Amino acid sequence: MISRAVVSVSMKRSRITADIFIPLGFIILLLVGWEYIVKLRSIPDWILPGPVQVVRTFVDNAPLIAKHAQSTMIECLAGFALAILFSFIVVFLMDEISLFRKALYPLIIASQTIPIVSVAPLFIIWFGYGMLPKIIVVVLVCFFPIAISLLSGLAAVDNDYLELFRSMQAGRIKIFRMVKLPLAMPAFFSGLRISAAYSVMGAVIGEWLGAKQGLGIYMTLSQRSFQVDRVFAAILAVTVLSAALFLLVSLIERVVIPWNRLNEK
Amino acid sequence: MPEIVVEGVSKTLGGMLTLGGVNLKAGDRDFAGILGPSGCGKSTLFNIISGLMRPDQGRVYIDGLDVTGRTGRVSYMRQKDLLLPSLNIVENVSIPLALKGMPKKRACAQAAAHFKQFGLDGFEKYYPSQLSGGMRQRAAMLRTYLFSSDILLLDEPFASLDAITKRKMQAWLIEVFNAISPTVMYITHDVDEALYLCDRIYVLSACPTVVKLEITVPFCRPPHGRTIVDREYGVIRDKVMEALEI
Ligand SMILES: Nc1ncnc2c1ncn2[C@@H]1O[C@H](COP(=O)(O)OP(=O)(O)O)[C@@H](O)[C@H]1O
Ligand SMILES: [Mg+2]
C-alpha cells in the first residue's frame, strides 16, 4: 500500500510538472524572445513594445484599465447569464417538441455563418452607445456553444435510461429533470467553458465600435493615438478576464456536478 | 397471484417479422428462463411484457388482467445497471418510491432498510462509479425490486460480469429470491445459468421467433453454488443445447 501511495504521489507530481511547468516554460521562452528581438532591433514603442514595457504600462494605468474592465466584465456576466437562460429555454423546447427542433436547428447552425462584426454596428444604431448592444453581442456569441453542447448532451443520453424510467411510469418532465438534464450536464459545462472564454471577446467587439466605457473602446482610442503599449496592456486585461471567467465556470462545475470528477477517474 | 401470460405475441421491427407468435407463461412464484439466439427478440419480448412496446398481435395478461401496452405493473431490469451517475446509491435505488410520490427522505429510509439483504450495507452514500460491477447490478436489482416486488423481468442481469462474480451473484440471487419469492422471467445466454436458476425454461427459435422448446427443470437448486449432480442434468442440458442448435 505504501509503495503504491508513493508511486501515485510521484505520478501526480510528474503530471503537475507536465501540465503546468512545460507550458509555463514555453510562454516565458516566447516572452524572452520577444523582448530580445525588440531590444536587439531597437523597435520603437509605437510599433511593437516589449513585454516589459507592456507590463509597466499595465501597472501605470491599472486604475484606468480596472475602470474599463469593470464595464466589460458587467457586460460579459450579464450576456453570459442571459445566454445560459435562453439556451436552456430553447433547448428544452427543441428537445421535447420535435416541431421546434426541426424548425430551429438549421436556423441556429446557419446563424453561425453571420459574422458578428457585421451585425454589431446595427445594434449600436438601434440601441445606442450604452451597455445593451454589447450585452446582445455577448449573448449571440455565447448562445451557440452553450445550446449546441446542451443539445448534443441531451441527444447522447442512452435510450435505455429513458425506457427504464418510462417503465417506472415517470412522466416526460420528470424524465427530463431526473435523467436527461443531469446526464447532459458534463457536456453542457464543456460548452459553458468555451463560451466563457468567448464572452469577453464578444463584449470587446461590441465596445470597439463605440462605447462610453470598456476595454474595447480603450483599445480603439489607444490604437488611434499609436499608444501600442496600451493596446497590449488592454489585451493583457482581456486575457486575464477570460481566464478568470473560465476558472469561475470550472469552479461552478465542481460545485454543481461534483460526481462528474468521480467518473473521470 | 402474480402470473404472466403471453398470448400469441408477434411484432415486426425494421420491416422484419421478429416475434412470430410467442406463447409463454410464468405462474405464481415461477422462475422462468428464456433462452434464445442473439437478436431473436428476447429484449423485444420484455419490452412488450413491460408495456413499453405494443405488439402487432397478441396480448399480455398479468393476474388475468389485460395489460398489453400498459407500463407500471412489472419491473424491468437490463444488462446495463443504468444507475444515474449524479445520485448516490441510496438515492438511485429509492427512485421508484420517489416516482410513486413518496417524500425523498422516507423513500431513502425505506430503500436503505433493504441494503443488508442486497449486500450493499455501508455503501449508501457511495456513487455508482465507486462500486464494483457486481454491486452495481445488486443495486439495480434492488431498485427493480422496489418498483414492483412480485413480478420481475430480468434481461441478462449478470451478462457483463466475470465468471466468478457471476457465480456468486447467482447464489446470492437464489437466497434473496427464496426470501421474497417473486414471479421472475429471466433472459440469459447461458444454458448452465438457466438450469441453475430456473424452474422452467423456454427456448426461442431464430426469427421469426416462436417458442421452440418448453422444459420443466426437475431438480432443486443446490445450496451455495454447489454443482448440480442430478443424473437428469446432462439429459436436459443436451435437450436445451439441441434446441439452441449449439
Ligand atoms: N426499435 C427497433 N427498431 C428496429 N429494429 C429493432 C428495434 N429494436 C430491436 N430491433 C431488432 O430486432 C431484433 C431483436 O432485438 P432484441 O429484442 O434486442 O434481441 P435479443 O434481446 O434477443 O438479442 C434485432 O435484430 C434488432 O436489431
Ligand atoms: Mg437483448
Secondary-structure blueprint:
The complex is a heterodimer of chains A (265) and B (246).
Chain A: H1 2-40, H2 51-60, H3 62-96, H4 98-111, H5 116-127, H6 132-155, H7 159-167, H8 172-208, H9 215-224, H10 228-256, H11 259-264
Helix pairs in contact in A: 2-10, 3-4, 3-6, 3-8, 3-9, 5-6, 6-8, 7-8, 8-9, 8-10, 9-10
Chain B: E1 4-13, E2 16-26, E3 31-35, H1 42-49, E4 57-62, E5 65-66, E6 75-77, H2 89-93, H3 95-99, H4 104-112, H5 133-147, E7 151-155, H6 163-180, E8 183-188, H7 191-197, E9 200-204, E10 211-216, H8 232-244
Parallel strand pairs in B: 3-8, 3-9, 6-7, 7-8
Antiparallel strand pairs in B: 1-2, 1-4, 4-5, 9-10
The complex binds adenosine-5'-diphosphate and magnesium ion (MG).
Q: Give the oligomeric state of the chains in this entry, treating copies of one chain as homo and distinct chains as hetero.
A: heterodimer
Largest interface between protein chains, with number of residues from each side? A-B, 23 and 23 residues
The total strand number of chain B stands at 10
The CATH class name of the largest domain in chain A reads: Mainly Alpha
Bound molecules: adenosine-5'-diphosphate, magnesium ion
Q: Which CATH architecture of the largest domain in chain A?
A: Orthogonal Bundle
Strand arrangement, major sheet of chain B: 6-7-8-3-9-10
Low-pLDDT runs of chain B: none
Q: Please, how many helices of chain B?
A: 8
Q: Helix proportion of residues of chain B, in percent?
A: 25-40%
Computed CA radius of gyration of chain B, to the nearest angstrom: 18 Å
Shape of chain A, please?
globular
The share of residues in helices of chain A is over 70%
Give a verbal description of the structure.
Chain A has 265 residues and is an all-alpha fold. In chain A, 85% of the residues lie in helices and 0% in strands. In chain A, helix 3 (62-96) packs antiparallel against helix 4, helix 8 (172-208) runs parallel beside helix 9 (215-224) and helix 8 (172-208) packs antiparallel against helix 10. Chain A is globular and about 75 Å long. With 246 residues, chain B is of the alpha/beta class. Chain B has helices spanning 42-49, 89-93, 95-99, 104-112, 133-147, 163-180, 191-197, 232-244; strands spanning 4-13, 16-26, 31-35, 57-62, 65-66, 75-77, 151-155, 183-188, 200-204, 211-216. In chain B, the strands form two sheets. Chain B has a six-stranded mixed sheet, sandwiched between helices. Chain B starts with a strand and ends with a helix. The interface between A and B is medium-sized, with 23 and 23 residues. Residues 13-14, 18, 36, 38-44 of chain B line the site of adenosine-5'-diphosphate.
